[in-house]
Amino acid sequence: MKNFKAGQYIKQGTYKSFQPEKIDRQWNIENMELLNLLSQADRQLGRLDMYSEYIPNIDLFISMHILKEATQSSKIEGTKTNIEDALLDKEDVNEEKKDDWEEVQNYISALNSAITNLEKLPFSSRLIKETHQILLRGVRGKHKLPGEFRSSQNWIGGASISDAIFIPPINATINEFMGDLENFVHNDEYFFPEILKIALIHYQFETIHPFLDGNGRVGRLMITLYLVEKGILKKPILYLSDFFERNRTLYYDNLTRVREKNDLLQWFKFFLVGVIETAKNSISTFDSILKLQKEVETKLQALGSRSINAQIIINYLFQRPIIEVQKAKMLTQLSSPSVYKLIDDLEKLQIIEEITGLKRGKLYLFRDYTKLFS
After folding, report:
1. Among candidates 223, 177, 227, which has minimal Cα distance to 204?
2. What pLDDT, in 10s, does the model give residues 155-183?
């Protein structure tokens, strides 16, 4: 990486666009500090992957990880939806928050769809386009060619291209650059550590900026997809958007630093620190979930025979920690009086709490669980 050159600015009439160097080639790593961080990241990812195998019903909890990823990745782009807002049904969302809520829901749908599609599609431009189409469906950006690479010039920052912070490559070269990126993804001829590979892929994708809108969200979503497709993680349980959101200035600065100073090393270090910290936090979260499960099970013993139906509701809450009476009735197949009594019991045991303050249409939140993802 010593002689790495990110690319060059090329005059395009009244502006200069950045044309990156292609990445599908041999790479050599010599920096010992980077190799040490890489070793730590590999170790933490291995721990997380192994840990996930021993957690009963881990799929119950993945939906909350995805929800957190969706809110944090969208927050980087300026939305203000939090986890509790995202859990609500559309009709329960305040009018001024509905646009943000819909963008978060689209992110969840796009990520879930992409994970499912990995079973039949490789990590590819086709997969990325299909994911992007879902991301922009019916929201801000819906007129900006969902599912299609851009056919015009875009830019980042600034009110117009004349005062833009960064101008990506011209649209005529996008297919060429994305083809190179795809070749790099599947190139087994040259060895390159997979974690550094996805770090480079993420940087290159954000530099190409192949869509008119949604590039940041798609680029962050790609990280998890890559780790799952390559078998580094068996389940989609590592999401870096929270780390990027908490270090947003550094995130953008380090991406820019690659282009301006050819400093790929600093981006790699930042990315690896993110992987290490996020993997550790994910393990800690899983530990807390298991502890909470045991605490709840202990509390349910006080309900005697009613604990069986209570457990059905709890299992649902570990997937989606908000519930109303009609949903509880459908899950348990109990009569209305019995369901109301069960909900009341769970509230008295301080497992759930009512959050609307209404007499009708009450919603109950499993707050101890949502706190683990805050």
Report:
1. 177
2. 999 899 999 999 999 999 999 999 999 99
Nearest to 264 by CA among 212, 329, 192: 192
Quote the pLDDT of residue 358: 79
Q: What is the pLDDT of residues 226-250, one digit of tens each?
A: 999 999 999 999 999 999 999 999 9
Burial class from Cβ neighbours inside 10 Å (0-12, 13-18, 19+) for residue 151 reads exposed
Q: Which residues, in sequence order, are bridge partners of residue 156? A: 166
Strand 322-323 with 15-20, pairing: unpaired
Residue 188, token pair as written in the block: 């087994």
Closest to 67 measured CA to CA, from 50, 48, 53, 86: 86
Q: What is the mean pLDDT of residues 285-303?
A: 94
pLDDT, one tens digit per residue, over 63-104 is 888 999 999 999 998 888 889 888 988 888 888 889 999 999
- Three-class DSSP labels, 276-316: HHHHHHHHHHHHHHHHHHHHHHHHHHHHHHHHHHHHHHHHH
Strand-strand pairing, 364-365 and 7-12:
unpaired
Are the beta carbons of 187 and 20 closer than 8 angstroms?
Answer: no
- Structural domains present in the chain: 7-285 (1.10.3290.10), 292-373 (1.10.10.10)
Predicted TM-score of the model (pTM): 0.93
* pLDDT the model gives residue 48: 93
Whether the predicted pLDDT of 57 surpasses 80: no
Dist CA 319 CA 62 (whole Å): 8
User: Which residue blocks in the chain are alpha helix, DSSP H?
Assistant: 32-53, 58-76, 83-87, 98-117, 125-135, 174-185, 194-208, 215-229, 241-246, 248-261, 264-300, 307-319, 325-332, 336-348, 367-370
What's the CA gap between 327 and 325, in Å, rounded? Answer: 5
Q: What is the DSSP letter of 123?
A: S
Secondary structure element (H or E) that encloses residue 365, with its range: strand 364-365
